[in-house]
Amino acid sequence: MEIVEFVSLKHVCIIYGKTPTQVRYAVIKGRLKAEKHGGWELRFRVSDLPSEWPESPRNKGKHNIGGS
Q1: Mind giving me the DSSP string for 11-64?
Q2: Is 68 contained in some domain?
Q3: What pTM did the predictor assign?
Q4: pLDDT tens profile 1-18
């Protein structure tokens, strides 16, 4: 059994159901931690990934808008 320490951008997109652009934006804004590998590729340490997608400060506390 192999223990995975890092995952790729593609895997993070699958984990959270987000697009690559959304994940990169979260990295730029400091909501997700990533390391550059090979100059341009992002790697994410599994132990640094939050259990849920990090909400932006603008959207925190704005659940159930519109009554649905």
Answers
A1: HHHHHHT--HHHHHHHHHTTSS--EEETTTEEEEEGGGS-SSPPPPTTTTT--S
A2: no
A3: 0.77
A4: 677 799 999 999 999 999
